[in-house]
Write a structure and sequence with these properties.
Length: 134
C-alpha cells in the first residue's frame, strides 16, 4: 500500500512537472505566434523575412504538437492516478471492514471465556491477558 502511495506521489510530481512544461511551451507558442503575426502584417516582406516566417511557422506547429501530446499524456496520467486512488480507497475500506470483524470476533471470544468460568485455566488466563493487551 505504501508502494502504491509512493507511486501516486511520483505521478503527481510528474504531472506538476508536465504542467509547468506545458505552460512554458504555451507561452513560447504565444510569443512565436505574435512574432509571426507582426511579420505577416508588413506589406512587403523580403525573402529573408519570408524564410524566417516559414521557420517560425514550423516551430509554432512543432510546439503545438508538443503541447497536444503533453496534454494527452497529462490526461492519461490523471485517469490512471484517479483509478489507482479509487482502488486504494476500496482496498482500505475492505481492510477496515475486516479489522472491525476481527475485533468483534476477539471481543466475543473474550466474553465467552470470562462468562463461562473458563478463565480458571492458566492457559486461558494467558489468552485473556493477551486480548486485554497485558
Amino acid at each position: 500500500m505504501l508502494d502504491q502511495h509512493a507511486h501516486i506521489e511520483k505521478q503527481n510530481g510528474d504531472l506538476k512537472r508536465l504542467e509547468n512544461q506545458l505552460q512554458c511551451l504555451q507561452f513560447e507558442n504565444k510569443v512565436l505566434s505574435e512574432q509571426i503575426g507582426e511579420m505577416s502584417q508588413k506589406e512587403k516582406v523580403p525573402v529573408d523575412r519570408e524564410i524566417e516566417i516559414n521557420q517560425l511557422t514550423k516551430k509554432v506547429n512543432k510546439y503545438r504538437l508538443q503541447v497536444a501530446e503533453t496534454e494527452q499524456k497529462m490526461e492519461e496520467m490523471s485517469k490512471k492516478a484517479a483509478c489507482r486512488m479509487q482502488k486504494l480507497e476500496h482496498n482500505w475500506r475492505a481492510a477496515d471492514t475486516e479489522v472491525c470483524k476481527l475485533d468483534s470476533l476477539i471481543d466475543a471470544i473474550r466474553a465467552i471465556l470470562v462468562n463461562h468460568s473458563l478463565a480458571k485455566d492458566e492457559q486461558l488466563k494467558t489468552v485473556i491477558n493477551m486480548i486485554d493487551g497485558k
